[in-house]
Design brief:
Helices cover 44% and strands 18% of the residues. The chain has twelve helices and nine strands. One calcium ion binds next to strand 6.
Amino acid sequence: MPRLYAGPRAPGPGPRQPTLKELHHALAKGAIGVVYQPKVACRGTELAGFEVLARWQHPELGAIAPDVFIALAESGGLIDELTEQVLEQALNWFAGLNRAKGALAAVPMPACSLKQLTLSINISARSLGNLALFERLERRCEALGLAPERLIFELTETSAMEDPVASLDILTRLRMKGFQLSLDDFGTGFSSMLQLVRLPFSELKVDKSFVMTAMQSQESRAVIKSVIELGHSLGLQVTAEGIEDRKTLDYLRQSGCDLAQGYFIGRPMAEAALPAWIHDYQAQARENG
Ligand code: C2E
Ligand code: CA
Ligand code: CA
């Protein structure tokens, strides 16, 4: 019997979300990978370091956005395990740069600049209470011969301010050991001047929502300018992320921003793609004088 036309299909629920069990399985298999996004000096051409970002290629759903699986890991109690796996991969890679055996060994870079590069790592507010995690991290850095000054922990403004008293304790300890601390997504939360001065940060990262709209929005430019002024008056470095074109980079240079990150400079990349990126970046820098 011919099938009757049943009319247009009702819209489906869309692709399903990954489950906590699947994330657990991915962590157990070591299937959470990492990519690195370069961070460069706003003025001049120097490479400053890299930010490590987690990636999950789900066997059935494809690439899962970090915003989705980080939130899942946080709510499901897997964030510390995820952070440890990200750290393990990133620290091994980063320490390899020092020994010039890593992926960048083939790229002509002065040995001194390799030793000054920093590695930025995103830390969830939920991990701040986990002293054991930071102790293991410290021992790992020692074993790999990495100076703590070369590691920058990025905390979002909202998460650092969730419990400023608890944050102050652990952040001060980390800072005293020499690790650097960055306030990520700055401008989106509501930190008071007093909280900002008390928390021992070394960097402010202007949220990309302001940077990406800087060329169209007077308000975004006002926020960027005041974050740069505030950061500098507190003796902090200011990084802008989300730079997608030359005009925005030029604007940030003129505004006195210190460091730059964004697709225009370099997308987050797998380790294997970094030597080619550095080679091209250096060639371009030489061309532009
Ligand atoms: P984030 O720390 O603010 O990282 C910057 C995000 O902006 C990254 O998204 C990066 O790919 C993206 N981005 C960089 N430059 C540009 C640009 O020019 N234009 C645009 N449109 N986007 C740009 P991603 O990788 O999707 O990560 C999203 C967020 O997930 C991160 O935001 C961070 O909060 C979180 N995350 C990623 N990896 C980790 C991790 O290992 N641990 C924790 N706790 N959070 C992580
Ligand atoms: Ca970040
Ligand atoms: Ca950010």
